[in-house]
Amino acid sequence: METPAGQPDGRTRGKSALGGASGIGEAWRRVPQRIRTLLPLVIVVFLAALYPSVVDSLRGLSVIGDFFPQVSSMVIILVFTMMAVGLNIVVGYAGLLDLGYVAFYAAGAYMAGWFASGQFEQVSFHLGSVGIDREATGIHVSLWLVLIMAGLFTAFVGILIGLPTLRLRGDYLAIVTLGFGEIIPQFVRNADNLKGFDLTNGTFGINPIDSPGFGEGLNGSLGLPLSFQASFDREKLFYFTILALLLFTVFCSVRLRDSRLGRAWIAIREDETAAAAMGVPLMRTKTWSYALGAFFGGIAGAFYASFKSGAFPSEFYFNISVFLLCMVILGGMGSVWGVIAGGVLLGWLNIEGLAVIGDRFNDAAGTNIEITKYQFGIYGLIIVLMMLFRPIGLIPEGRRKRELEEGVRDEPMLEGRG
Amino acid sequence: MSAAAPNLLEALDVRKEFGGLVAVNDVDFSIPAGAIVSLIGPNGAGKTTFFNMLTGVYQPTRGKIFFDGTDVTGKPPHAITKLGIGRTFQNIRLFQQMTSLENVLVGMHARLHGGIVRSVLRTPGIRREERKASDHARELLALCSLKDRDEDLSRNLPYGDQRRLEVARALATEPKLLLLDEPTAGMNPQETAEFTAFVGELRTKRNLTVLMIEHDMKVVMGISDRVTVLDYGEKIAEGPPKEIQTDERVIEAYLGKAATA
After folding, report:
1. How many CB pairs under 8 A join A and B?
2. Is residue A304 part of a domain?
3. With an 8 Å Cβ cutoff, are B106 and A2 in contact?
4. What is the DSSP letter of A70?
5. Which ipTM value was assigned to this complex?
């Protein structure tokens, strides 16, 4: 287990470590490694892509049928999983405890609110939007564009939040991020009258928000759906979109991990002082992890707002930050597969799982307990049990696993700067 | 005060206070290009603090530091590394969960360019850069007698190899000046002798200037062109090893007053 060859997970080794290997034996060893890496991915993606077509039959099964979530629930599960994979860049790779990730979700959702709804009725601006009356007021930008804009804007917010906070270490950083996670929803709630200007529509939130689609041109030529909202397959379309977005997030996150930047993140996680002495700019590298983590959170937030057709301040609570962090911890910090597993599991429990399990429990025990009321208590219990029995997570990253078993050296040595 | 060779590094009147404690007291110090200079002194003399100021870990309370003609006073560590000062640590600070190769690759951080978008796309340029970097890292490992150790986790290496890996990692930053903080601490006499020879080789082969903190007088006297002695934060002597060995203040600092009487 201590040698690289015996690592529990082939993916954890950077590609760079394999490059330039010589000899036939080495080459032979490389083939199964790649297959070992890709095969689970192909299977999971295949099953996920198949899911909407078989979900009805699965849900029709006796006994276990209820345990399969509906497609609309799957959309939400995958949205949160995508956010967790984004958060993993910050927490898992760079080792920065971020308790305010919900701020990025909110920023993304409001980007969709601003640029794809009738919120700003003073103007009428249309750019590639689908299924919207040309005469309608407000800014209506194509949601595909809005997703990109939301990612970029949120990354920018991440940089803004990161600049003052990332000089802090450990607990201090966590507390300040927690603060920002609270400030942004409060701001959103109160920004309905900024000197007479209604930015966020306050507690009522912004709705409806436009839906993605391909418009008449592509609809006519390729048969792509005109607008998701107007389609009979609305849920399915959103599902495939979020699946693609999640894959994109995973792809980027793995590529980043194995890059020069990823090495620098891990170096910072292991020993900041040594990393700085090796030429890694601490502030810039940490800020990038923040910005990139935020980028995916923003896209997920904007997508979710479009799916729900609304952005409401009541959804951006601290709970969400903790919930996402639980996904990362449960799955295994730094491990992309782990975070996906943790995200899907906790997401499912949150949306359908607990209710189903609760019903089963009540049926069997003849009681009448509303299990879902205790959801955060249950998540807390899961985390406590994980910490007691498997602190490394469901599918741990090899490196992280060893760190947890042996501890890292991270004595502050720099004089609070970087 | 300085020799005929131009100075690669010059510290003028450098002072560091921690609260009321003066750790380094107005020290003037210079390193001629191409030289091996040793910094010695009893425990707590301020050697490591001085080192940390040169590398940007600490900011001097007062004074200026010039490296290769640039004022580096108060610059952050990564910027100083980029300018060409590489270092090792007294208590080994490798990235323990990384392989030897990855450790060295982190050392190349400032010399590589791989941006975010190109890394995600893994463009041919990035592949080439990464491949070159790995090849170069393997060369450095081989240079430091760590051939065939590149896939080993750094924490699994024997102690002497860890020390050498620290040097390989520091060399990866492409330094002009290499700072070694007690590089032979904990080595047995044979390892120490090998290491000393290795440092000498580095200087000639790679055109390096070396500053080291060292307690082993055999190493110091054997390899240094010049020795600087700190005691209680003050520079008490400076000169070629032979002079230092007979300097009264130095003997006093190490052995007490009675020894010089």
Report:
1. 147
2. yes
3. no
4. P
5. 0.91
